[in-house]
Amino acid sequence: MMPMAHNNVLRALGFLLMMSSISWAGAVRDSFPDNCDGLDSVACSELVREMRKKLQGNTPKSFGVYRDACKQGDSIGCVSLAGAVAVKETTDARKAEHIVSAEQIKNLNESCFKNDTESCLALAVAYYYGFGGRKEFEKSNELATK
Q: Which ranges of 31-144 would DSSP assign to H, the alpha helix?
C-alpha cells in the first residue's frame, strides 16, 4: 500500500499528466498547434496553460508546445515536459531531472505563494520527481493538497 503522501501526489500527477483518451477531446486537441512557432514567450506560456486546462492531460501534440515553452523559459512548460519524459510519454535527449532549473523552481514557489494553483501543482510534481533539486515528498504532498 502506498503512503498517503504518494496517493495525493499521484492524484496531482494524474491531473497534470494523464493521457487524453476521452473521445470529446479529439476536436479540442485538433484545435491546438503542435508548437509555439511565431509566438513570443508570453503567448507560448499562455498556450501551455490553455492546452493543459482544455485537454486535461498530455497528448503527443502537447509535447512540442511544452518543449518550445521550456526553451523560452516557461517554468510550467518545463515541468510538464520533464513529467512527460519521467513517465516515458515522450523522449527527450536530456534526463527529466535536468530539464527544470533551480531558478524555475524559485519562480514556481513565488507564484504558488500567490495562490496560483497550476504553479502549486507543477511544483508538487517537481518536488515529487526531484526536478530542479532533490526529491521532497512531504513538500510535494503539502502542495498537491493545498
A: 41-55, 60-71, 75-86, 102-113, 117-129, 137-144
Q: With contact defined as beta carbons under 8 Å apart, do 52 and 14 qualify?
A: no
Query: Which residue do the cell numbers 473521445 mark?
Result: 23
What is the CA 130 to chain-centroid distance, rounded? Answer: 13
* pLDDT interval class at 16 (50, 70, 90): low
The angle at the Cα of 62, spanning 57 to 67, to the nearest 5 degrees, equals 125
Q: State the pLDDT at residue 59.
A: 66
Residue tagged 517554468 (cell numbers): 75
pLDDT over 90, % of the chain: 17
Distance CA 46, CA 141 (A): 26
Q: Taking the model in full, what pTM does it have? A: 0.69
